[in-house]
Q: What sequence folds into this?
């Protein structure tokens, strides 16, 4: 058994998302005026070869803290799927 | 009423994910040897000011096709949440 961690890393709400603003403006230029805001982050899928879900959670939290997200500016969330 | 579109844009499985490979290697160097693969994509949250869910879906598919993903190399999927 293994797990697929579907991780979302996003800028903290308090931080200006310059990339999101640029895309929001581009969508406005394309005529999509019903869009209030756009925020852009990273989507990371990690296949973890682990039997126990608690250990898989621990590995996922560890790698998010240490490498995949910047705890100063970013938040992360994830779903674990058995495969 | 409005909708929050949570969009995931990922490289097609057939395409080599160079970024994912680099992160996979870095995790191995940090001692995480239980990880089989890492694939990295974009996570985009779009607030859509629309009452009707079918129209919100149409807008989301449109903006994914026209701007947020590259149909030649990327796939997209999304969830619509009422807010």
A:
């Amino acid at each position: 058994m293994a797990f697929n961690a579907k991780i979302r890393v996003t800028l903290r709400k308090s931080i200006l998302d310059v990339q999101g603003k640029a895309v929001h403006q581009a969508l406005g230029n394309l005529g999509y005026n019903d869009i209030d805001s756009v925020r852009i982050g990273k989507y990371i899928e990690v296949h973890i070869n682990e039997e126990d879900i608690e250990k898989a959670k621990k590995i996922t939290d560890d790698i998010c803290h240490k490498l995949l997200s910047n705890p100063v500016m970013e938040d992360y969330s994830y779903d674990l799927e058995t495969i």
Observations:
- The radius of gyration of chain A is 16 Å.
- The mean pLDDT of chain A is 96.
- Chain A has two helices and three strands.
- Chain A has one domain: 3-82.
